[in-house]
Design a protein that fits this description.
525 residues, GMP Synthetase, Chain A, domain 3, 6-stranded mixed β-sheet, 5-stranded mixed β-sheet, 25% helix, GTPase Obg, GTP-bd_prot_GTP1/OBG_C_sf, GTP-bd_Obg/CgtA, magnesium
């Protein structure tokens, strides 16, 4: 018998986008005919599809790791990389998709319902797509972005019209086997049913489904027995059918006390917002095992009390099939009324309104975080994070292109407003991200610079020398050279060293000064 699994965690990794290509067209008589690098292909998405033919999550329990293929890289001659095929994962109807924090992403109750849970990466642009009138031959291309990688939770809640609830061994599995083609495991010991069983029942022109929920005991809503684990399978049912055992051998039990315990557990179970509480739904009672003489007497005895509470009561036997036809048509009547009510509720649901992005939404936020060596400015936004992933930081031209894109988006203005200065640490993306030392451009935040009009504090490091300063520096160097020559002459005359020939013959006077040639005595030429 196949194992029933109704809760799994999927580990997903969508395909990465392919890198763009850097290429220049070369052919005879056209050695440099312009860029022709193609774009990279998109990575494959991972999609969940609600399939009525699937009844369990067992396949994902045994193989929880799923990944789609990557997109192909771009090539020369304007050839784009191949786009990867999406991966479709079929799940049963009634599957609730949640993230790792328990937030509901989708409730897959309709056949064919689809949701992309792991989008693939975006392919990078080739240099042909990046060419423009100002950048005629780009020497770089954009890299492909990473596909989504993470975990999601799948929780199966059985989609059935009627739920059979009752104590263990009350005859729920026997009843579903008697009125439908389902063949659940049936034995004479408690908790034989370890997972919900579904059966399809035909009553005239009405067809409905019945769910056999594992037995409930006192304290099931607090985790005792198997009830709490499977009470969520009762959430989607239109009606409840209480199966009461009239032939129990337990001296402390009787049909009325069993019903009170089950009602208490159903009342303690919280249903999702927007759904009816379990006790507010239509409820019928089936007194089972009347083929036993003592059980028939007990059923006749308690029937009046149950009808006085407002319940419709049916005496049945899953062995002799007595009373099953009347119960079958009564359930079909309740189900048909519930479908009419659900259709009216569905028609009155509010329309889904998709609102465009606000005009003043810049698409990113700047968060100031404290650090050991000053504030850290973190930029969070879809566009900046994607642009960083697409940048090849080994290519200076690609880095410059990124800087232009970030400046055009208005990031530098927001950094200045947040208090950043030249040299501040800026991180783009969550976690470690990509770390930069911010060097603002000359044109950014020009109207916000807190310097005197006509000046810019960022230009202080490039101060030019005046003519007087250059003249003084020149004369200083000349005086230093003359002093060095005089020192060498004194050392030579003192006999500390000798060159073997007179290098300054007739050019140097006894006091070490250098006479000016071309002048006559008296100071005139």
């Amino acid at each position: 018998m196949a194992t029933f699994v109704d809760h799994v965690t999927l580990h997903l990794r969508a395909g990465n986008g392919g890198n763009g290509c850097v290429s220049v067209k070369r052919e005879k008589f056209k050695p440099l005919a312009g860029p022709d690098g193609g774009n990279g292909g998109n990575g494959g998405d991972i999609v969940l599809v609600a399939d009525p033919q699937v009844t369990t999550l067992l396949g994902y329990h045994r193989s929880p790791h799923r990944s789609s293929s990557n997109g192909g890289p771009g090539m020369g001659d304007h050839r784009a990389g191949y786009a990867s095929d999406l991966m479709e994962l079929s799940v049963p109807l009634g599957t609730v998709v949640k993230d790792t924090e328990g937030n509901e992403l989708a409730d897959m109750t309709e056949p064919g319902f689809r949701i992309v849970v792991a989008p693939g990466g975006q392919g990078g642009l080739g240099n042909a797509a990046l060419a423009s009138t100002k950048r005629k031959a780009p020497g770089f291309a954009l890299l492909g972005t990473y596909g989504w990688e993470g975990d999601i939770q799948l929780e199966l809640k059985t989609v059935a019209d009627v739920a059979l609830v009752g104590y263990p061994s009350a005859g729920k599995s026997s009843l579903i086997a008697a009125i439908s083609a389902a063949r659940p495991k049936i034995a004479d010991y408690p908790f034989t049913t370890l997972h919900p069983n579904l059966g399809v029942v035909d009553a005239g022109e009405v067809r409905y489904t019945v769910a056999d929920v594992p037995g409930l005991i006192e304290g099931a809503s607090e985790g005792k027995g198997l009830g709490l684990e499977f009470l969520r399978h009762v959430e989607r049912c239109t009606a409840l059918l209480h199966i009461l055992d009239c032939a129990t051998l337990d001296p402390d039990r009787d049909p009325l006390s069993d019903l009170d315990v089950i009602l208490g557990e159903l009342a303690a179970y919280p249903v999702p917002e927007g759904q009816k509480p379990l006790l507010d739904r239509p409820q019928l009672i089936a007194l089972n095992k009347i083929d036993v003489p003592e059980a028939r007497e007990l059923a006749d005895f308690v029937r009046g009390d149950l009808e006085a509470r407002g319940y419709r009561v049916f005496e049945i036997s899953t062995v002799s099939h007595e009373g099953l036809r009347a119960l079958n048509y009564a359930l079909a009547e309740v189900v048909e009324a519930g479908r009419v009510e659900a259709a009216a509720t569905q028609a009155g649901k509010p329309r889904i309104v998709i609102r465009p992005k606000a005009v003043d939404d810049s698409g990113f936020v700047v968060k100031v975080e404290g650090g050991s060596f000053g504030n850290i400015y973190r930029i969070i936004g879809t566009k900046p994070e994607r642009w960083v992933q697409q940048t090849d930081f080994t290519n200076d031209e690609a880095v410059g292109f990124l800087a232009d894109r970030l400046a055009k988006l208005g990031i530098e203005n927001e950094l200045f407003k947040a208090g950043a200065i030249a040299g501040s640490t800026v991180i783009i993306g969550p976690g470690n991200g990509v770390v930069f030392d911010w060097e603002p451009t000359l044109t950014s935040t020009a109207e916000l610079i807190t310097a005197p009009r006509g000046t810019d504090t960022r230009l202080d490091d490039s101060k030019r020398r005046t003519s007087n300063e250059r003249r003084e520096e020149y004369f200083g160097r000349m005086d230093a050279k003359a002093a060095a020559r005089a020192e060498l002459i004194r050392e030579r005359e003192a006999g500390m060293w000798s060159t073997g020939e007179e290098e300054f013959n007739g050019d140097v006077t006894g006091d070490g000064s250098v006479p000016v040639k071309g002048k006559k005595e008296g100071g005139s030429e």
